[in-house]
Amino acid sequence: MANKPTRDRRGTELAKIHMGANRLGLDTKDKDPDSPYRSMLWAVGRVRSARDLDASGRAAVLDHMKRLGFESTRYRPKPSKATAAQIGKVRAQLYDAGRDEAYGDALAKRICKVEKLVWCKPDQLNRIVAALWYFQERKKGKES
To answer: Residue 79 to residues 15, 119, 130, 133: CA-CA distances in angstroms?
Structure first.
């Protein structure tokens, strides 16, 4: 898969900067130019706001924050309690079909106009379960 478009990468990096600042105890909402967060941005990237950073500035700030102890973790959304059983069924159907969860996300996007499978509502998950059931039935029909 090709690299993400620049705008998406910028948004991801800005989110990581803000998340890292919060984990390091820096207040990103304090607009005072002498606040620790603004001072760090000035010392590393020569800007007072993260939105003014270019790609190399964002990388430098993230590197600086890593040296200070910030570790970015990969976030995997969790289904709500109301949909956990249905998500489990969809995942079982995907496994049975030889597909991964990315395929489930693609189905959610195509069928329900939702980015991630785990963000679907129960009625949307019912449609995905039905679509996977039809897929399994067609697969059984071709094997016979």
So the answer is: 22, 7, 19, 21
Kindly report, residue by residue over 53-91, the tens digit of the pLDDT: 999 999 999 999 999 998 877 666 778 888 999 999 999
User: What residue spans of 24-121 are helical by DSSP H?
Assistant: 36-45, 55-67, 84-96, 101-107
Note whether 79 and 118 are within 8 A (CB): yes
List the domain boundaries for the chain: 6-67, 84-143
Residue 1 has pLDDT above 50, yes or no: no
The sign of the torsion formed by the CA atoms of 48, 49, 54, 56 equals positive
Q: What is the pTM of this model?
A: 0.52
Tokens (6 digits) for 51: 């939105």
Instruction: Tokens 């000035």: give the residue.
Output: 42
